[in-house]
Structure formats: structure tokens, C-alpha cells
Design brief:
The chain has about 200 residues and is α+β, with helices and mostly antiparallel strands. The protein is built from seven helices and five strands; from the N terminus they run E-E-E-H-H-E-E-H-H-H-H-H.
């Protein structure tokens, strides 16, 4: 049974699985409702690609279901139940929290990013991005070595990968005598700082 549910005045396509007795929701529609992205399909594709690099395979959390599109035809699209939607956010949050002591949502608030479609990475300094990538890369390597087969194990791997980056960040801060966690966003950085950051990457 398919239906259309409203969230913040935006329609989210949903499907009721009689055997599992639970609702599945179109991930693209959820992304559209939560981010106000002009292209939610592309936004979701980039998220899946980014998290796969970080060792998190989001396709295992989703299932393909046929849902009606705006042209009236039905196409296969990524869908997830409520638990699956939360899992995507939790694994990403584990890496970030272990690396910086903040979840992505907390980090966005710290940087004063109030708009839903403002990507945290677009507003990171070069050092913040380096440690973000370190946490994700280490998580990828641990995941490749251990091949975690449950959500709990994936969560622990994400935490361990982020922790490696967190330790490295703290050691770097000791050497520099300052925190590398900045409350500035990309638009607030002086142009010469942006150029310096680009050259150093």
C-alpha cells in the first residue's frame, strides 16, 4: 500500500509493507524535506558516495521500491524505514563526534549555519577538512579489514576511526597552541586565508 505523507508541507512518498508491518519512505523525498535542496536526487547520490568512502555502505540500509513519480509513472527508488533513516545519521555522527567532539548538527550550530541546505563541509577550514577526511579514511580501512556485518559493529568502527582523527587533532592543537575547530564559516573567511588553505591542501 502506497501513500503520500506531508512533512513541513512537502510530500513524502511512503509504502506500507504488510509482511514486515512497517512503513518505508522515499529517501529522496526525505532529503528534499529536510535540506530544501534544489536537486535532492543528486544530493542523496553525493551523500551515498561520501559515506561509502568513509566505510559506510548506505545501500545496505535502503531497499529499492517502485513509487509513483511526478510524471505518473512508477520507478524504483531508494527507500528506508524509520530505523534505517536514523542509522544513516547515527554512523556519520559517530565519526564526527569522535573527531571533533560534536555531531554534524552540533557543528553546524557552532558555525552559525542555520539554513538546512548549508553543507557543513563547504564551511570548514583546511585543517577541519583534513581531520574530517582522516577520520573517514581510517574508518574505511578498519571496515575493509574487519568487514563488520551488523549495525552495532559498524557503529564501533565509525567511533574508532573518528577517535584516531580526534587524537591526531588534539596533538596538532598542542603543537599549534590553539584549537583547530573554528566557528567561522567559509563565507566569513578572508580571501587570503581561503587561498592559503587551498595551497596547503
Amino acid at each position: 500500500m502506497s501513500s503520500l505523507k506531508l512533512f513541513q508541507e512537502k510530500g513524502i512518498r511512503s509504502y506500507w509493507d504488510d509482511q514486515e508491518e512497517q512503513w518505508y519512505f522515499s529517501v529522496i523525498d526525505v532529503v528534499s524535506a529536510l535540506t530544501d535542496s534544489a536537486n535532492p536526487r543528486d544530493y542523496w547520490f553525493k551523500i551515498k558516495k561520501r559515506e561509502k568512502i568513509a566505510g559506510i555502505e548506505l545501500s545496505t540500509i535502503c531497499r529499492q521500491l517502485k513509487m509513483e513519480a511526478t510524471d505518473g509513472k512508477k520507478y524504483f527508488t531508494d527507500c528506508a524505514n524509520v530505523k534505517g533513516l536514523f542509522r544513516c545519521a547515527i554512523l556519520t555522527a559517530e565519526i564526527s563526534k569522535a573527531t571533533f567532539g560534536m555531531t554534524p548538527s552540533e557543528y553546524k550550530e557552532f558555525k552559525g549555519l542555520e539554513k538546512k541546505n548549508q553543507n557543513l563541509r563547504d564551511h570548514m577550514t583546511d585543517l577541519e577538512m583534513i581531520f574530517t577526511m582522516l577520520g573517514e579514511r581510517v574508518t574505511t580501512e578498519i571496515s575493509a579489514n574487519e568487514k563488520p556485518d551488523t549495525f552495532a559493529k559498524n557503529k564501533q568502527v565509525a567511533k574508532r576511526g573518528g577517535n584516531v582523527a580526534g587524537v591526531a587533532r588534539k596533538e596538532t592543537e598542542k603543537e599549534l597552541g590553539r584549537s583547530i575547530i573554528s566557528d567561522m564559516n567559509y563565507l566569513e573567511l578572508p580571501s587570503d586565508s581561503i587561498q592559503t588553505g587551498l595551497k596547503s591542501i
